[in-house]
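TASK: fixed-backbone design
INPUT:
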């Protein structure tokens, strides 16, 4: 298949499956831009925007931010020049309505989704990953207390910032996020399967193993 740019990828998978971790690696390996809707919401929260205040209500409960708000935010973001070579969508779409809206916005640009890797992870693994996840308050880099520990405990390797636990990674909220995933997001597996874009990757493996499997599977599709 042709490898002409832009190349758009959608990472599907439950919270904690490793979408952000893999998207960050793919960003440098493939020269595409990682766009994480969760990161965009957190940026808005940090900057005390109206959008951030609205999103906080949903994020704190582990629910999804309404589709119209989320779609408008992503649509605006992908207009920027840094998305011209293509985007790795991480955490978006999360509903069928978002998936259809994404197809429409890309079609307007004369483009389309080329491949949708699904990170398949068991519930025990997900809970273990989410409860051990730590993020840098300053630059947002993601760590895990056991599987991806920083060199110095509590300190970001990248910028020296302080590491913290996301408030939505506490056990009460994690349970609802998993429920929301199965109810609202997992239908995307069928959506992309029907379009012949889905590739399943075993995400229960260590980070490096998943990365190699991702690169191999994506490369086979986009011809790299
Ligand atoms: P995770 O990396 O654990 O999957 P994210 O950082 O992607 O979590 O998202 C954190 C929260 O932000 C979600 O629980 C949800 O409240 C909100 N959010 C992120 N992306 C979307 C989206 N595409 N649609 C609706 N809400 C979203
Ligand atoms: P998502 O974006 O899907 O919510 P993250 O990429 O933030 O997931 O990963 C969740 C947590 O699990 C982080 O602490 C990350 O360091 C860790 N992690 C990611 N992939 C793996 C893996 N394959 N094995 C072990 N830990 C992982």
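OUTPUT:
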């Amino acid at each position: 298949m042709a490898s002409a740019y832009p190349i758009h990828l959608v990472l599907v998978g439950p919270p904690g499956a490793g979408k952000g971790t893999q998207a960050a690696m793919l960003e440098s390996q493939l020269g595409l831009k990682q766009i994480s809707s969760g990161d965009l919401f957190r940026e808005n929260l940090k900057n005390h925007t109206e959008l951030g205040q609205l999103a906080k209500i949903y994020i704190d409960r582990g629910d999804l931010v309404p589709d119209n708000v989320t779609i408008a935010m992503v649509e605006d973001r992908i207009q920027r020049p840094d998305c011209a070579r293509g985007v790795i969508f991480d955490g978006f779409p999360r509903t069928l309505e978002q998936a259809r809206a994404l197809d429409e916005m890309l079609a307007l640009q004369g483009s389309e989704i080329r491949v949708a890797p699904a990170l398949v992870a068991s519930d025990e693994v997900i809970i273990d990953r989410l409860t051990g996840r730590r993020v840098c308050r300053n630059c947002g880099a993601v760590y895990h207390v056991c599987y991806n520990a920083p060199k110095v405990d509590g300190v970001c390797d990248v910028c020296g910032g302080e590491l913290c636990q996301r408030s939505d990674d506490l056990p009460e909220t994690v349970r609802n996020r998993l429920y929301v995933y199965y109810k609202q997001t997992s239908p995307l597996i069928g959506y992309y399967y029907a379009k012949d874009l889905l590739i399943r990757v075993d995400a229960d493996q260590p980070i490096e193993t998943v990365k190699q499997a991702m690169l191999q599977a994506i490369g086979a599709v986009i011809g790299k």
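COMMENT: The two ends are 10 Å apart (CA to CA).
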